[in-house]
Amino acid sequence: MSSVSPPSSLLNTVPRTRAIVENPALAARAIQLLQSFRAFVQLDAQEARTVAAYLREVSFSRGEVMFRAGDSHASGHLLLVLDGEVAVDTGTSTPSGDMPIAVLGAGSVLGEMAVLDGAPRSATCTAMSRVQAAGLARRGLERLIDEHPRVAAKFMVLLAQHMAERLRALDDQLRLYAQIHPAR
Predict the structure, then answer these.
(1) Residue 164 and residue 89: Cα distance in Å, rounded?
(2) At what angle do helices 45-52 and 149-180 cross, to 10 degrees?
(3) How is the chain split among helix, strand and coil, in percent rounded to 5?
(4) Closest listed residue to residue 81, CA positions, set 62, 105, 59, 57
(5) Where are the domains of the chain?
(6) How far is CA 14 from CA 7, 73, 131, in A?
(7) 131-156 residue pLDDT tens
(8) Long-range contact pairs involving 90-99 (C-beta distance under 8 Å, separation at least 24)
């Protein structure tokens, strides 16, 4: 009986994780960041602890690609950045390199769109430094919804507001780009 191992390219894109509650310092950081989101709905300490119970600890080395634009195989989780910086780009190469969108740090959520709609990743995220993150898989989100629907609803509002803020920031960037490079 032979076992088939996954291709090495897949092994490099699936980070090893453990429950974040197994690392009290990172769990406390995740809870703090979950409570600090600016939204009309806030998570209290107990609700943030409830969400943290579904999170997994994930680490990335400097230069490591966390998500790749267009990837549909690794779209089943989101990341809450606990520490470090992440470069976000379109994944579209131009003569001058990839087109940068933003640099994000602690408290940023990455990959929420793919978790919610199951579509391929919309951007490439690369660790600019060592990154500690808390991951939430789609399965974990589904369990949170089933087991704690009120907390899950509040968390989903936070994700929606986070996406809205990033879309507004991107809109501002596009307006500025249009002013710098007017249509001909």
Answers:
(1) 18
(2) 90
(3) 40, 25, 35
(4) 105
(5) 13-180
(6) 11, 10, 15
(7) 999 999 999 999 999 999 999 999 99
(8) 90/123, 90/124, 91/121, 91/123, 91/124, 98/124
Main-chain phi, psi angles of 39, to 5 degrees: -155, 165
- With CA atoms as reference, report the closest residue to 136 among 162, 155, 157, 164: 155
Cα separation, 142 vs 152, whole angstroms: 9
Q: CA nearest 15: which of 65, 86, 52, 82? A: 65
Domain 13-180 class in CATH: mainly beta
Asked whether the CA dihedral 76, 78, 84, 90 is positive or negative, the reply is: positive
The answer to whether residues 108 and 86 touch, using CB atoms and an 8 Å cutoff, is yes
Summarize pLDDT for 70-100 with one digit per residue, the tens.
888 777 899 999 999 999 997 666 656 566 7
* DSSP summary character for residue 20: G
Vertex 94 angle, CA 69 and 175, to 5°: 80
Q: Say what the pTM is.
A: 0.81
